[in-house]
Specification:
Helix content: 10-25%
Order of helices and strands: HEEEEHHEEH
Strand order of the largest sheet: 1-2-3-4-6-5
Structural class: alpha+beta
Number of strands: 6
Radius of gyration: 18 Å
Strand content: 25-35%
Number of domains: 1
Length: 201
């Protein structure tokens, strides 16, 4: 990831707070699975003095442009702190993907999906507090001219939390793990890459 000019920041690198510079370096060091493709995207400019945003897609088949899951990760930093954050940093994330209809119809999916996030943060030793968020599950059935499309289910996780330190790379890794779980990939030990997989049907 090219993090030399984080989106939404007009300051020169030397003018960044040392704390934010260390946070960016930590993001650069994040180890991600081969199926997770991340790029920098413009960050919100009115929520905090400093911000960086990432956009991710999970591609299970290298020969296809079909996304199994997608998401956004935003790191906000206000050296003065903000009361709702209970800190000087705040992470805001979004993750969404298509799931099988029987999974989308399970009323426990929302609780399970939220547990994916918390477990991923714990697994990567990403210290945090003041977490909040929502999980939405939907299903759709096409009709008319597009009635030949198969029924589709989706799960969407919107979450934010306050990191306890500047080791933001661990939080990026945890968020990426959530994306791969939504995409249906089996979990892997940290540092192990998966072989190219085939899209679930």
């Amino acid at each position: 990831m090219d993090m030399t000019r984080p989106g939404g920041i007009d300051h020169e690198r030397d003018a960044m707070p040392p704390s934010f510079t260390r946070a960016i370096e930590s993001i650069r060091s994040a180890a991600l699975r081969a199926e997770v493709h991340i790029e920098e995207t413009p960050a919100p400019q009115r929520l905090s003095p400093y911000a960086v945003a990432l956009q991710a897609t999970v591609m299970l088949d290298p020969a296809s442009d079909e996304e199994a899951a997608s998401g956004r990760f935003v790191l906000l930093h206000d050296p003065a702190g903000q009361e709702p954050w209970d800190g000087t940093y705040r992470i805001v994330t979004f993750a969404k993907g298509t799931v099988e209809m029987d999974i989308a119809g399970d009323p426990m999916l929302t609780e399970v999906a939220w547990s994916w996030l918390l477990e991923a943060l714990y697994d990567h030793e990403a210290a945090f507090h003041a977490e909040s968020g929502t999980v939405t599950r939907t299903s759709s059935q096409a009709f008319g001219a597009i009635g030949d499309r198969l029924p589709q289910g989706d799960v969407e996780i919107r979450a934010s939390w306050t990191p306890d330190d500047e080791s933001i790379g661990a939080h990026v890794e945890a968020w990426a793990d959530v994306l791969t779980q939504i995409a249906g990939l089996p979990p892997l030990p940290v540092g192990v890459s998966a072989l190219p997989a085939t899209r679930r049907r």
